[in-house]
Amino acid sequence: MSQLFQEAIIISILASTIRIMTPLLFSAMGELITQRAGIWNMGVEGTMLTGAFAAYLVATLTGSLWLAVLAAIVAGALMGLVIAFMTATLRVDHFIAGLGLNLLAGGLTLYWFQSYIQGRAQPIFSGFQDVDIPLLSDIPVIGPVLFSQRALTYVALLVVPVVWFLLYRSRYGLELRCLGENPKALDVKGLSVSARQYLAVMLGSAMTGLGGGFLMLGFSDRFLADFTAGRGWIVIVALIAGNWRPRGVLIAVTAFAFLESLATHLQVVGAQVPHQLLLALPYLASIGLLMGLRFRSGQPARLGIPYARE
Amino acid sequence: MIVFERRMEANALWTLSSFIMAIVAGLAASAVLIASTGANVPDVFGALLQGSVGSPKALATTLVKATPLILTGLATVIAFRAQIWSIGQEGQVFAGAMGGYLGAQLLAGLPPLLFFPGVLALGMAAGMGLGWIAAVLRNRFAVNEIISTVMLNYLVVYLLSWLLQGGPWGETGGTISYHQSPMLPDTAFLPALFGSSRLHAGVLLPFLAAAICALVMSRTPLGYEIRGLGYNPEALRHKGVDIARTVSVIMMASAALAALAGAIELFGVSHRLRADNLIGLGYAGIIVGMIGGLSR
């Protein structure tokens, strides 16, 4: 009996690890593309929040979840456009640009949310449900963990190899990595640096926005202030911890998700720990992780340095 | 031959006009947002003006509300001038209120002339501890201060949440938890400036703090180092300045200012420890600092 119980708990922990992980994975892969292009985008939190809000708005207005996904992607790309304009065209300090964007997103989403509901009861929607993959979902343990998830989860897991291929096996990826390592080389060849920066940041931010949208559509039915609750910052930490490589970032995001899943299950099991301590665990772990990561060889050489022709 | 040279610094007129343009753009954007929800723009701006400076009472309320924002704004300017992108003001405000509350229990019964400086100093010390942690993370472990301060903000918010709910400081009525501490005794309320008005003595401190900051920035070696760190840290290092020490001093000074905001909120406004009236003071201070920091 207790063995059965334990097995059920372990399956539940692993399944919710995958569930928590996948929205973060979209955002992390998006930010990976942005940062490999040399843009230190600190606006992940704001971009995810905007994506989540856009998804909420469209889901409650139209009732179509896939339109809502599209809205999150578009909202993310627009945030990317703002970041690209500030960093590539105006050459504002990257940190300042991202910080400003976060503050703007926090205020704007709340303002629009309040004026959207106007005091009435908040409209809610019913989000994505689990999709069982036939046959595979019947495998014990692995089935419920991996093959009984939201549809977008499968997409997120596919995005990792796609981003890897894009970065390391395509001409576009070579140019993109060159933006982060040595943009002058592109400029000397007569290729536009800023056009490529715009494209990279908008593509990356679209994925980051999708992550926020998935967070909304897959795991909630309503919008709240500060909905993303620091997940955008966890994404940035995961990028550093993953040494700016797709596989490393995947491992880091999985570790964070596992920690969060463990924390929620400890509550369910009824461990005698204050729940605030469990909620604080991912942030404590982030600080600890960053302290141990002094050597970051994978960091793009020109990350965060605005490019200007001499 | 004509050669274009990148200018080193914008001239005063351009700086001033970009400052005005930023405010005009902000107002214009607000007008667009207000109009987008279907409200009458002049009415809204009129109500804003009336509610903030329209009567002596409104003016007093504005001063009380501005007090923490001036302090967190100053905290931002000090750090950002040195190109230290600390956004730990939010957590430091919380730490200041928590340190102050602890102080109110330790120093209860002291005469007001000792009590208030004591509790405010303890609040500031709590904030400085937080600033010190972020400085050590940056100096010793090369952790980016934006990320570390965000993480610390969340940790402090959860710490307060635990202290008030489940922890030792919560006010409980039977089985209900109110997410706030019991009321402080009225000997621990900051005295009112005019009789029974809500204008507490704490509103004077930001002006004092701003004057001290201006003096330190323009007239002392520390101020020179703060500005130097922003312009050219390499040159500063070659001059023999201990960069790590300077970073620690700046981050702790900035944290002390933000924490003072939290402590004043506790003793001047809420009179009990709760998160509601502290949330957002730090982040709003960053906006205040960014706008104010444009003018040198």
From TrEMBL, chain A:
Keyword Transport: yes
GO CC, alphabetical: plasma membrane
Subcellular locations according to the entry: Cell membrane
Entry annotated with the keyword Coiled coil: no
Pfam families according to UniProt: BPD_transp_2
Membrane topology: Multi-pass membrane protein
Chief localization: membrane
MF-aspect GO terms: transmembrane transporter activity
Keywords: Cell membrane, Membrane, Sugar transport, Transmembrane, Transmembrane helix, Transport
Signal peptide annotation: none
Transmembrane segments: 6-26, 38-59, 65-88, 95-113, 151-168, 198-217, 223-242, 249-269, 275-293
Name the UniProt record assigns to this protein: ABC-type transport system, permease component
UniProtKB/TrEMBL annotation, chain B:
Pfam families xref list: BPD_transp_2
Predominant location category: membrane
Membrane topology reported for the UniProt record: Multi-pass membrane protein
Protein name: Simple sugar transport system permease protein
Presence of keyword Amino-acid biosynthesis: no
Keywords linked to the UniProt accession: Cell membrane, Membrane, Sugar transport, Transmembrane, Transmembrane helix, Transport
Transmembrane segments: 12-38, 58-80, 92-108, 114-134, 146-164, 199-217, 247-269, 275-294
Lineage, broadest ranks: Bacteria, Pseudomonadati, Pseudomonadota, Alphaproteobacteria, Hyphomicrobiales
Keyword Transport: yes
Localization per record: Cell membrane
